[in-house]
Amino acid sequence: MRVHVEWLDGVKRTFDGVGQTHLSSESNLLTLHGHRVGGYSQHLASIPLGQVREYRKEE
Fold first, then answer.
1. pTM, 2 dp
2. How far apart are CA 10 and CA 44, in angstroms?
3. H/E segment holding residue 21
4. Nearest 10 degrees: CA dihedral of 13, 1, 50, 27?
5. What is the chain's alpha carbon radius of gyration, rounded to the nearest angstrom?
6. For residue range 15-26, what is the model confidence (pLDDT) as tens digits?
7. Parallel, antiparallel, or unpaired for β 52-58 and 2-7?
8. How far apart are CA 36 and CA 54, in angstroms?
């Protein structure tokens, strides 16, 4: 999956190879992980939602 993120300052970034996304209301973070390999997945990013204008997933 691919995840597109646009920050409040207009910076845009695309994360490729995302296997799982997690929204945490407790920590107010969007966390992106890669695909699971051997029971583990690589942490790709933790993005504070207060700094994000928009994000969308593309399968």
1. 0.85
2. 21
3. strand 18-24
4. -140
5. 12
6. 999 999 999 989
7. antiparallel
8. 26
Residue ranges of the chain whose pLDDT lies below 50:
none
CA dist 49 and 41 (Å) reads 22
Which amino acid does the sequence have at 18? V
3-state secondary structure the chain: CEEEEEECCCCEEEECCEEEEEEECCCCEEEEEECCECCECCEEEEEEHHHEEEEEEEC
pLDDT of residue 59: 87
- Kind of pairing between the strands at 2-7 and 12-15: antiparallel
